[in-house]
Amino acid sequence: MTTDQGPIVQSALLRTELVRLRKEKGMTQEQVARRLEWSPSKLIRVEGGKNAITRTDLQALLSVYDVSSESRQERLQSLARGAREPAWWNSYRGEFDDAFLTYVGYAAGAAYIRHFHGTVVPGLIQTPEYAQVLSTGMVSPQQQAFGVKLRIQRQQELAKRENPPRQYYIIDEAVVRRHVGIKVDPAIMPNQLRHIADSVEANEALTVRVIPFSVGAHLGIYGPFTVLEFEGGLNDVLYLEGRAGANVMITGNDEQIAEYRDNFEILQDEALSADESLALIRQAAEDLMA
User: HTH cro/C1-type domain: from which residue to which, for each copy (predicted)?
Assistant: First the structure.
């Protein structure tokens, strides 16, 4: 398990482990609360992530659950310390809603990021210029500046991780062919495509594949989505992007998440190979400059 997953993922891992320990012990929340002379609501808030847990309270829970292994205790205390650390994305609170920033936190600590988009380049591989053009006229200049800054910082923070996530992106050929920014600067889109190709060649943990027009209709036409997977036993997270910010993050619905995981595999089967996709992206960059 990595130690640089960020506070949201470390908090979720800790909560998952504490619930597992309680159930393995065969105890209800009420029984544990009585044993510790806590209010039931306190344990509910701890297990639900509403309250950060102190070192003393965590040690008390581990005593009730008979966790005697020093290595296991230290691992859980380490998760608790990580969960209490301030998140870098806190500086964006007030500019973005809490639900979106929670998703940012989960993505920051993921081991695998699988994302499909049929209309634009995925945010984590966008250039600043491309990102700015996309939001021009859609939001205020201040929101636009914060949005571009957040996307670039997300990229930088992932790159700084000791164990960066494996990132798999599938895009429709329309994303590659659309000359975004042509009215502002014709070089924006070719530079964006070169950035994708250069990033793929420089980072073996990054894969970008293209679904060609020849495939016709495919499962991705229903909208962009992301599936996040984690180390340490944490359940996957599904993020669905809608219009006008109507985005939804889904956790705990194993059946729905599995459906999108399967959809991603189907889209992979329909996409060009990694090498073919890279060649198409580079050729498209040249075509746009012709």
Answer: 18-72
